[in-house]
Amino acid sequence: MKHETRFDPQAELIMVDATLRGPRDIKIVRMAIDTASAATVIVPEVLDDIGYSVRDGTGRTSVTTAVGKEHGFLLKVAEFEALGFMLPEFTVNVFDLANGFGLDGLIGLSFLNQFNYEVRSAEGRILVEKI
């Protein structure tokens, strides 16, 4: 099965919508595709909104970024859907993103590596195929 997702080719980042389902709510979030990120990252406020807390985490993490070391935690969300595909019980890395883009998170390789995908930047399209 293949799916096409459109994005704004004029934007500085490849931004797409994703959907997270938690114990209390479902939320649509804005995320950047980041093939340089091993993990899929969500900011803590989003997870608070859908009913998760740090107590639901499965382990502590730290990530080195351009601005220094960020501390966070791993958390398994009930459902994560992006680029036309839903993954149940998906593990995300939770930490604050220092960004001026209003991002709710990053779609990293932990999600992307489960698919074949093609980014067609000039056309503003991402083609994704389940392996």
Q: Taking strands numbered 1, 2, ... along the chain, how are they ordered across the largest sheet?
A: 2-3-8-4-7-6
CATH topology: Cathepsin D, subunit A, domain 1
Largest beta-sheet characterization:
6 strands, mixed, barrel
Structural category: mainly beta
- The helix count comes to 2
End-to-end Cα distance, whole Å, is: 9 Å
> Taking Cα atoms only, what radius of gyration do you get, to the nearest Å?
14 Å
Helix and strand run: EEEEHEEEEHEE
Residue stretches low in confidence (pLDDT < 50, at least 5 long) are none
CATH superfamily: Acid Proteases
Please count the beta strands (DSSP E, at least 2 residues each).
10
Helix content: under 10%
Assigned CATH class: Mainly Beta
Estimated share of beta-strand residues: over 45%
Question: Could you characterize the architecture of this molecule?
Answer:
This protein has 131 residues and is mainly beta. The protein has a single domain, classed as Cathepsin D, subunit A, domain 1 (Beta Barrel). The protein contains two helices and ten strands, in the order ββββαββββαββ. Strands 2-3-8-4-7-6 form a six-stranded mixed beta barrel. The protein has a three-stranded antiparallel beta sheet with strand order 1-10-9, with no helix packed on it. The protein starts with a strand and ends with a strand. The model has no long low-confidence stretch (mean pLDDT 93).
